[in-house]
Specification:
Blueprint lengths: L4 E6 L4 H15 L3 E6 L15 H13 L6 E3 L11 H15 L3 E4 L7 H13 L4 E5 L12 E5 L1 H11 L13 H13 L5 E9 L4
C-alpha cells in the first residue's frame, strides 16, 4: 500500500474490516499510521435482541484487534440507508478528515457498489481526496463490477487477524459473509490469482507517483 498514513473509510461499522482487514493488519505490523472512519453504526438495522448501539462497542473491539489505536478511530452517526440525503454534510466531514489527518492513501468502497450508502461514500470521497492515492476495497456481494488490478499479499497472521476482528461483531454473525469459512476462501481465491496463499484485491482509482 502506498504511503505512510492510510485512511480507511467505512460507510458502516464492519465494512472496512470485511473489505481489507488483512491489509490493515499488515500495514499496522509495518508501522504505518492507519485511521478508520465509520459513518454509521446502523442502529436502525440491529436485531431486536441486541442494544441499538451495539455496533459502536463492536467496532471499537474490532479495530483494536487489528491494532488501530483508539484515537485513530473516528465515528459518525448517520442513519443507515440515508447517506444520499446527506451528501454535503458527509463531504464536509470528509474534508475535515482530510485536513486533520492529511492521508497519503484513502481506502474506499467501489464506485460500482450497489448499496446506496457505499456508493455515496465513494463518490463524496473522490471529491474530498482527489489529490491523493485512492484505492477501492472489495465487497463482492455488493459489487456488480470490480476491476481486480491491485493485490496486497497478506500472511496467515494477517488472515487470522481479519477473522478475529470480524468475530467481534456478534450482532452481525447472521450475515452469510460473516464467518471464517467465507473470509478465508475469499483471501485464498485472491491469493491464487497472484500465486500466493492469501491476498486482498483493490481497484486503483487514483495513483500519484512522485
Amino acid at each position: 500500500m502506498v504511503g505512510e498514513k492510510i485512511l480507511l473509510l467505512s460507510p458502516h461499522t464492519d465494512d472496512g474490516e470485511l473489505g481489507c482487514g488483512a491489509t490493515i493488519s499488515k500495514l499496522i505490523r509495518q508501522g504505518k499510521q492507519v485511521y478508520y472512519a465509520a459513518f454509521s453504526a446502523c442502529e436502525q438495522s440491529v436485531l431486536p435482541n441486541f442494544p441499538k448501539d451495539i455496533l459502536i462497542s463492536e467496532v471499537k473491539a474490532a479495530t483494536a484487534t487489528l491494532g488501530i489505536p483508539s484515537e485513530n478511530l473516528k465515528l459518525f452517526r448517520y442513519d443507515v440507508r440515508t447517506f444520499n440525503y446527506h451528501r454535503q454534510a458527509i463531504l464536509d466531514d470528509l474534508i475535515k478528515l482530510r485536513e486533520t489527518i492529511q492521508p497519503d492513501t484513502v481506502l474506499i468502497p467501489s464506485i460500482n457498489d450497489i448499496h446506496q450508502d457505499h456508493k455515496t461514500m465513494a463518490e463524496e470521497a473522490l471529491r474530498a481526496f482527489k489529490f491523493v492515492n485512492i484505492f477501492s476495497y472489495e465487497l463482492p456481494w455488493n459489487n456488480l463490477n470490480f476491476n481486480t488490478c491491485a493485490f496486497e499479499v497478506v500472511s496467515e497472521e494477517d488472515a487470522q487477524c481479519k477473522v478475529n476482528a470480524l468475530a467481534q461483531y456478534k450482532s452481525q454473525a447472521h450475515r452469510p459473509y460473516a464467518n471464517e469459512e467465507f473470509l478465508r476462501s475469499q483471501l485464498r481465491m485472491r491469493g491464487v490469482q497472484v500465486a500466493q496463499r492469501y491476498a486482498e484485491v483493490f481497484e486503483v482509482v487514483r495513483l500519484v507517483m512522485n
